[in-house]
Task: structure prediction
Amino acid sequence: MKKKVCAAAVITLAMGTTAACGSSGDSGTSGGTSAQTARGPVKVWLSNNKEELTWGKAMVAAWNTAHPKELVTAQEIPAGKSSEEVIGAAITAGNAPCLVLNTAPAAVPGFQKQGGLVSLDSFPDGKAYVEARSGTAADQYKSPDGKLYQIPWKSNPVMIFYNKDMMTKAGVDPSAPPLATYDQFMATSKKLVASGAAPFAIAPSPTSEFFQSWFDFYPLYAAQSDGKQLVENGKATFDSDAGKKVSNFWRTMYAAKLSPQEKIEGDSFADKKAAMAVVGPWAIPVYKGKVNWGVAPVPTSAGMTADKIHTFSDAKNIAMYSACKNQGTAWDLLKFATSKAQDGALLNLTGQMPLRKDLTTVYADYLVKNPAYKAFADQAARTVEVPNVANSIAIWQAFRDSYSSSVIFGKTPVDAGLKTTADKVNTLAGQS
Amino acid sequence: MPNATVTSQVQDHTGPTRPPPKRRPRRLTTIFGRHPLGMALAAPYAVFLAVVFAYPLGLAVWISFHDYFFTAPGMKVARPFVGLENYRTALADPAVRRSFLNVIEFLVINVPLTVILALVLATALNSAIRARTFLRVAYYIPYVSASVAVVAVWLFLFSNGGMINQLLGPLAPDPSWLVNSHLAMPVIAVFVTWKQLGFFILLYLAALQNVSRELYEAASVDGAGKLRSFISVTVPGVRSATTLVVILATITGANLFTEPYLLTNGGGPNGASASPVLVMYQRGIEQGSPDVASAIGVILVLGVLVVSVVNRRLLERD
Result:
């Protein structure tokens, strides 16, 4: 009996491995020129953000009214641990939609490697359309092969939100709190905590997920380095004076317990557990009526005027997926969804900034009527994206692990941590 | 009863000769065994095991020896054989090595604690105590509750401003439990022990029903107290259940994922509570390297097999 069981196990294992061998990637790539001109119904996935859903459904309804023979079906991105995992699984399964109006730039290199994306340059007017809409900002979104696999759609340039009431309680001028330089930021933070106005000055999430550095290190690094990406020309840039200054600034914040080493459950800013937060314009409707807030650019070591400061874009883009059969319709829909009218509707409904070169002039009326968004719209002209390089997520995870060790928990020296991580990142960025 | 046996034997010897039973064709017997109905009934589960466990395991082993990443259907890519390269990459990664050490730390705390607490509590719940049914249900509830919900309670207890620290006052650890590199994994081990205790108590309760009362009476006659009876009668009496508990706790412990993912926010602080499965998830799903993730998985499977075999040998030897 034992022999039979063993034999069955071996056969099953062999079947498994044989089947695995058989599935090792073959047959032709879907899509191609015929798919690019094909027209017909298409599916799109939208973010599950309430305001974005409202906009997306209205946009799709407008399209469907005008194009009854090329109907669009829209749905929220299916639930999962993250949108990127769901999209990655859909690419592998071959059932990705035509467009995802919430594609994270950091995930694009991975999707591209999977063969899941359609190059937008392959459409006759693809390159011209993107450049006309976004200008040189589109360059940050080009893949290492020089092609565009995503259209820069909207950004949420991050800035410092502060609680005016807490500033007042701490004896700081709430109309212009000193937050421009690291020393000023630190002094204001100490006043906020020492006065009991807030348990913590600012509480970026100290957890280990790869994307968390986008909301503590990266915005300040973008500002301090005059707009450098984490990786440029295949090399890490952060093992530098700017990287060290930003890392040491945050290390001091954690060491002085002005920022918590433990994640605060819920929204630390809304729950009045932190006096400041690193947020984008999405925060304006979220905190309306809950917090008496003000906004300031991210700090730099010596201070800069607001019109010189760069920050992280926190952009979400639109990508076309290779499983799409009617790519001709999908391309037209993509242009429709990013038209001036639809961008205006998006701005109006969500407060998120369309990645257009003429943002502040085209939507000047909106910004006059909604002055709260003016600072973010100005900041949108100077944003830094995550680098579009191979192993993007692995690079951010390596950076986060090191940052966590040296900056958040102070287990390793900051300078040594940056050096070691830069070496690792260089290796990862150099792999195909 | 002895008469019946005799009668039967007489009939066998004196009655007319029975025709020889029809024999199944030898080939069918070879294929389907002597109990084809049993095979038919077992087949669905065997197929389930083959499809859901054996095939993925085989695929994982295959992937671990190749340069592999997930692709869209129809994408033409080479998947060259890379030998042990993925294993080298995995073992050269400090985060992977750390995760294996973490899970060993977890098992060293979790498995003995599970065995001791489950056995002691099962023994207590097996005796005539008040509210026995209520207590049995109470211990089982965490096991059937979703980890996500239960983790929220533990966050409330063990976070920096949580109830435990408020009770401890100045004695509270700094950094707090879940962000303390020395305490995060022990807290997770205790959490998992508590959560799964109900299931293991149930196993011991079943095993305790097979321990003869006479053994306890004999021990009592020999002057053994409750503790001596427990050590000399109960513990050896449930040895086979202990083997099962140790092996199951080891396997489930080695598969640790949800707790470090939720309780310490992705294996924090600074990787101190990252488990191999969590690192597999990061490498395989988030970072698009299923080949390295598979290598980690194969190492984990082999490790669990070795530990389980050693456990079994140690626990079942006379």
